[in-house]
Structures are given as structure tokens and as C-alpha cells.
From TrEMBL:
<feature type="binding site">
    <location>
        <position position="206"/>
    </location>
    <ligand>
        <name>Mn(2+)</name>
    </ligand>
</feature>
<comment type="similarity">
    <text>Belongs to the alpha-IPM synthase/homocitrate synthase family. LeuA type 1 subfamily.</text>
</comment>
<keyword id="KW-0464">Manganese</keyword>
<dbReference type="Pfam" id="PF00682">
    <property type="entry name" value="HMGL-like"/>
</dbReference>
<feature type="binding site">
    <location>
        <position position="204"/>
    </location>
    <ligand>
        <name>Mn(2+)</name>
    </ligand>
</feature>
<dbReference type="InterPro" id="IPR000891">
    <property type="entry name" value="PYR_CT"/>
</dbReference>
<keyword id="KW-0028">Amino-acid biosynthesis</keyword>
<dbReference type="InterPro" id="IPR054691">
    <property type="entry name" value="LeuA/HCS_post-cat"/>
</dbReference>
<keyword id="KW-0432">Leucine biosynthesis</keyword>
<feature type="binding site">
    <location>
        <position position="16"/>
    </location>
    <ligand>
        <name>Mn(2+)</name>
    </ligand>
</feature>
<dbReference type="InterPro" id="IPR050073">
    <property type="entry name" value="2-IPM_HCS-like"/>
</dbReference>
<dbReference type="Pfam" id="PF22617">
    <property type="entry name" value="HCS_D2"/>
</dbReference>
<comment type="pathway">
    <text>Amino-acid biosynthesis; L-leucine biosynthesis; L-leucine from 3-methyl-2-oxobutanoate: step 1/4.</text>
</comment>
<dbReference type="InterPro" id="IPR002034">
    <property type="entry name" value="AIPM/Hcit_synth_CS"/>
</dbReference>
<keyword id="KW-0100">Branched-chain amino acid biosynthesis</keyword>
<keyword id="KW-0479">Metal-binding</keyword>
<comment type="subunit">
    <text>Homodimer.</text>
</comment>
Length: 521
């Protein structure tokens, strides 16, 4: 019988994932994701890069102060200041780990670091030794490992293990490698590094050529026992290896792969939904495992086969990853449902709402039941997620009313009534060439911040002709990129809410930056 090897799942959604263009999560959103990752059962949560900003420091600290089951780690350059900041942020978590990195490839050494091989070794060794005075678990990453000369990689790995590193991560930083090459690198390191038994090896793959998952699996086939990955595969550029694809591939092909993870696969869909909603990065419909179409069968022959025996065309049962076949259309609560039933349903989503948030969610639900006959789980979930994002006592904009009228000359007139952060009510009217355009122009002219629409999307949540509309936007606000989302029964209301939500998210981040400044002064 083949031995089954335990593979540790290191999730970097909150660090590499948060480096995705246009994504900026506030600390409450990061904590929400971290709690879900803990429910999913990931072994390690990379919570952020504390030295990169005060905001990141606070988010990592909040996560470290809250999470008890998973190891919490934070990224640091090979600099004492970064390591000290990571220690300060992580010191209250029961299982802290530092993750330090330095590039090793010739191109990075020559052009970026301007260091020779010996300097790269000395710096890494010194900083691993320093980290070891503060942390028991020290992960060292050879940035751009897959483009590094193998003998040099062997030499530096032996040196950092000797200095105390307990995890060696070999990233394919630029997503350039192939499964065979990446696997061979791990084999070479496993076979040639004399003290490799004192550390574990880890993969970290980017998806520039669409091979991140295949490369990660090649890594574990050749000695790695930790995989770094992210929910929905989000991350720098084309992203990282997708956690859900790796987890389900190892499970479904357990006949072929002698590996197991300790993930709770039924939490995959929920994790994907939370990350997609909070980052504003929707999942493509044909995405493996969690895409909307992943379990949809269109061709007549396929449908016929499915009816006779689902295994004819379905290798993964949707229930395995928490997708219930008809969850989107399940009648959930109706007009006559009370607060108690609503609270129970919120609990079943495992998202925590305080009394104030619960009251707001219940009111939104009641308003929805006035317009929508069947309120589904997806509808309720959207309401909760929106409230979670708006949950803060910051002064913000509130769209109190709007109207859109179509004029005879083909123009559209939008009138809005907005409550501004200083609590004054402002009405404004503009014309534009379409309803969304006119509405956005009106909002843009009222808000004090300079805003510019970069991306706009509209889709439906839940099933049926009275499904909720969900809008997502990307705005450039005072030169920062912020995403926003809004849901409503009406497409225009959802669109307006999304715009306002992005501006409020910007205000929130500005206000927390000011609080930090004040605290530092
Ligand atoms: O891709 C990469 O090399 C990284 C390191 C910082 C681990 O993200
Ligand atoms: Zn990376």
C-alpha cells in the first residue's frame, strides 16, 4: 500500500492575493476572510506584509489576535525593521511564523538587488538568524527560485537551514516554469541538500502561463509538503495557484495522488464567494470547481446521460465543495418570516453580525420581501456582505433617493438626493446619454472626492425573473483605485449603490489612515 503524505495548505489570499490590481481590502474585510480560511481548515494564513504600511500592520495584528487554529504568518524582507514589525503584529497568535524572502536568480541579483551570490547568502543567513531569536518557525523564500542556478540554490538553502530556517519556499515568481522543470528543481534540492531533513519544502506558483496548479502538484510529487495558493487563484498579475483546484484535484484523483490535505472541502464555495465579493473580483463562469457553469450541463446528450447516471458526465459532485444543486433558487424566507428565523439563517452563513448590523440586514430583507416574491439564500448573503462592507461608524455618503427620466431628445435626466458625510442633504440634476451614465455623472458632481469610473459590471444574483441585480465598479478616487458593489432589486439602484459604496470605502480607508497618524503623533 502507498503511504499517504500530508500536504500543508498555506493560503496567501490576504497577501499575494491582495496584491491583485484593484484589490484593497480594509481590516474588517481581511478579518472576515481570515475567519473563513480558518473554517476552511487551511494550515497557514499569510495575513499580510506588516512593514509595507501601517494599515497592513494593523490588519495582520487583528488577524493574529483573533485566529487560534491556523498558523498565522506575515511577509518580511530580509531587513531587521521588517522582521521586528512582523513580530509586533504576530506576537499574540498561538502559532506565529515569519516569512522572509530574498531573490536568488541572476537577473534579480544583478539588476534589482545589485548583490553578488555571497551577499545574497550572507544577508539571508543573518536575517534567518535574527528571525530565529523571535520565532520558532522561520520560512525563507528564494524569490525567483525557478530561474536560479541549481548549485547556487543548493548552497544557499544549506546555509539558511543551518542558520535555523524550518520551511524553504521555492517560488516560480514569474510563472515561467513548466511542471517537469519545477518538479526537477524540487527533486534536485531533495536529493542534494545535505540538511534537507531539518526543513520542509514549499511550492509557490504564479499562473502567467496557466500552469500554476500543475506546477504546484509537480512540486509535491518531488518532495514538497507545503503548497502556497490562494482562493479563486487571485494574486499578483495572472494570480497564484488556485487553492480550490489543488484541493479538489488531490481529493478526486486520490486514486492517483497519494496526498491528503486537512481542508474542509464543503467550505470551498463559501470561501470563494466571500473572497469574490469582498475583493470585487468575480469568478469567471467556466472556472474549475467554483465557476457558475462548473456543474451545468448544456448539451442534450450530456443532459440525457446525467439523468440516467450523474457519473456519466460529472466527476465532482457539487455538494462536495458546498455547492448545493439548487441553492441559488431555494425559497428561503418570505414576507412573513420573523426576526428569529432571519437570525438563524444569518448564523447558518457563519458570518458574524453585531446587533446593529443584524437590524440593518433584517430591514433590508424586509424591504426586499416587499418587491420580491422569493427571497433566496444568495439574496440574503448579498445583503449581509453589503452590510459587512459598509459596517463602520465613519461619516459617509448615503443615496437617499434618485429618479431617472428619458427625455424626448434621446437624453436621460437623473436627479439625486444625497446625504453627505457632513450630514447635509444635497439634490442635483444632470443629463447624460444613458441612465447609468447620467446617474453616475450626478453622483460624481456631488461627491467632494475626484472620482473616475474605470470598470462597471452588472449581473444577477439568485434565480428567477425577480432576481437581485448586483453591480460592481472600479473607481479611481483621488488617484487610488477602489472597488465598490451594490445590490438592489433595480438595476439602476444597484449601480448607484456600487458607486457610492466605492467612495465610502475610500473614505473609510482615509479615515483609518488619519486615525493611525493621530495614534502615531
Ligand atoms: O512570488 C513570489 O516570489 C512571492 C514571494 C514574496 C514569496 O510572492
Ligand atoms: Zn508570489
Amino acid at each position: 500500500m502507498t503511504d499517504i503524505t500530508d500536504i500543508k495548505i498555506f493560503d496567501t489570499t490576504l497577501r499575494d492575493g491582495e496584491q491583485s490590481p484593484g484589490v484593497n481590502l480594509n481590516k474588517e474585510e481581511k478579518l472576515e476572510i481570515a475567519k473563513q480560511l480558518e473554517r476552511l481548515g487551511v494550515d497557514v494564513i499569510e495575513a499580510g506584509f506588516p512593514a509595507s504600511s501601517e494599515g497592513d500592520f494593523r490588519s495582520v495584528k487583528l488577524i493574529a489576535d483573533t485566529i487560534t487554529q491556523s498558523t498565522v504568518t506575515a511577509l518580511a524582507r530580509t531587513k531587521k525593521h521588517d522582521i521586528d514589525r512582523a513580530y509586533e503584529a504576530l506576537k499574540n497568535t498561538p502559532n506565529p511564523r515569519i516569512h522572509i524572502f530574498l531573490a536568488t536568480s541572476p537577473i534579480h541579483r544583478e539588476f534589482k538587488l545589485k548583490m553578488d551570490k555571497q551577499q545574497v547568502i550572507d544577508t539571508s543567513v543573518d536575517m534567518v538568524k535574527y528571525s530565529k531569536t523571535l520565532f520558532k518557525e522561520v520560512e525563507w523564500s528564494a524569490e525567483d527560485a525557478s530561474r536560479t542556478e541549481l548549485p547556487f540554490l543548493k548552497e544557499i538553502i544549506e546555509a539558511v537551514i543551518e542558520a535555523g530556517a524550518t520551511i524553504i519556499n521555492l517560488p516560480d515568481t514569474v510563472g515561467y516554469t513548466t511542471p517537469k522543470e519545477y518538479g526537477d528543481m524540487f527533486k534536485y534540492i531533495s536529493d542534494n541538500v545535505s540538511n534537507i531533513d531539518q526543513a520542509i519544502l514549499s511550492t509557490h506558483c504564479h499562473n502567467d502561463l496557466g500552469m500554476a496548479v500543475a506546477n504546484s502538484i509537480a512540486g509535491i510529487e518531488n518532495g514538497a509538503t507545503q503548497i502556497e495558493c490562494s482562493i479563486n487563484g487571485i494574486g499578483e498579475r495572472a494570480g497564484n495557484a488556485a487553492l480550490e483546484e489543488i484541493a479538489v484535484a488531490l481529493h478526486i484523483r486520490g486514486d492517483f495522488y497519494p496526498y491528503k490535505t486537512s481542508l474542509n472541502l464543503q467550505e470551498i464555495k463559501r470561501s470563494s464567494d466571500i473572497v469574490a465579493k469582498l475583493t470585487g473580483m468575480p469568478v469567471q463562469p467556466n472556472k474549475a470547481i467554483i465557476g457558475r457553469n462548473a456543474y451545468a450541463h448544456e448539451a442534450g446528450i450530456h443532459q440525457d446521460g446525467m439523468l440516467k447516471n450523474a457519473k456519466t458526465y460529472e466527476i465532482i459532485s457539487p455538494a462536495l465543495v458546498g455547492v448545493s444543486a439548487d441553492s441559488a433558487n431555494t425559497l428561503f424566507l418570505g414576507k412573513h418570516s420573523g426576526r428569529h428565523a432571519f437570525k438563524d439563517k444569518v448564523k447558518s452563513f457563519k458570518v458574524e453580525l453585531n446587533d446593529e448590523e443584524l437590524k440593518e440586514a433584517f430591514n433590508s430583507f424586509k424591504t426586499l420581501t416587499d418587491h420580491k416574491k422569493e427571497v433566496t439564500d444568495d439574496d440574503i448573503y448579498s445583503i449581509i456582505m453589503e452590510i459587512k462592507t459598509d459596517a463602520s461608524n465613519i461619516s459617509r455618503y448615503v443615496l437617499e433617493n434618485f429618479e431617472v427620466n428619458y427625455e424626448q431628445d434621446g437624453q436621460t435626466k437623473a436627479s439625486i438626493l444625497i446625504m453627505t458625510p457632513d450630514q447635509s442633504q444635497v439634490t442635483h440634476e444632470v443629463t447624460g446619454s444613458g441612465s447609468v451614465e447620467a446617474l453616475y455623472k450626478a453622483i460624481q458632481e456631488v461627491v467632494a472626492e475626484s472620482t473616475n469610473l474605470l470598470d462597471y459590471q452588472i449581473s444577477s444574483v439568485g434565480g428567477g425573473k425577480d432576481a437581485l441585480a448586483e453591480s460592481r465598479v472600479q473607481l479611481k478616487i483621488n488617484n487610488h483605485q477602489f472597488s465598490g458593489r451594490g445590490t438592489a432589486q433595480d438595476v439602476l439602484a444597484a449601480s448607484a449603490n456600487a458607486y457610492i459604496n466605492a467612495v465610502n470605502r475610500y473614505l473609510m480607508s482615509e479615515q483609518s489612515a488619519k486615525t493611525i497618524e493621530r495614534a502615531k503623533a
